[in-house]
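Question: does this match?
>
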Amino acid sequence: QDVLSLRGHEDQVFAVAFSPEGSLLATGGETGVLRLWEIWSGEEVLRWKAHPYGITSLVFSRDGKTLVSASWDETIRAWDPATGRQLGVLRGHRGDVACVRLSPDGRTLASAGGDSTILFWNVADLGWDSKSKTEDVPSSRLEVLWKDLAGGDARRAHRAIDRLTRSSQVSLGFLREKLRLPPDPLCARIQAKVRDLDHSEFDVRERANKFLMQNGEEARPALMKALQDSPSPELRERATAILSVPHWPFQDFPNHLLGRQRAMRVLERVGTNEARALLKSVAESSPWSIEKRHALGALGRLDAQASVN
């Protein structure tokens, strides 16, 4: 089943890599152009000429703040995926570099070349500085950046994530207010639509079915509860059918949560105690199961990084 197609390369694509949280996909091809895509929107958010010749392999660091590429040009290069800024270049192979991989703890980079050698690099000694330079963003700009986060232009949203990350001293307080939860009308609508699966009118049942299919991830808890409550044969059949359909993350993510999800990317990139506290608050209080899962995932990745460091 083809669940997502990304088109933009004008040449063969040789390498792909997902960021640790799965929100970004890096792709590289024959002309040495590196492209970065946001999975939720399916849009390209950044592209740059990374190598003069073809890109053969890509890998993200475990914190997602560094992207490493290998190429026919005999080099390995490190990049800041937020901006496309080059962080460093490694030379050592006498021929094409075919593959690069990072160890689970992120401390060692392994590269394999067409010269039949495998080289191991101590990442701490490479001098790659992936820390973003801090930036003071005027409070008047914060609302504009929030609109960019929640907007339909994925490129602008990607830039907004970077700016909010670099201005974390002011942005965290702002995001705390934005992530406060109003009453969620979607939860009430889902409950009503689940009841409508057993409505006496066929058209009402069909509309409810369509709505619940479109909100598959969020509707799952309500549908499972309905199946436990001795439902009618009609409701049981429809609820079971909806739950049996595979739902992919980028299909399930509702538009009204997109800005909030991008904000959680900011919190994960900042990674301070204050940012972690905000992620924990979202995980505990959000009425949306998909948002809870993403917040818990971010906390888990931050815990894993802390245990290694």
Notes: The chain has a mean pLDDT of 89.
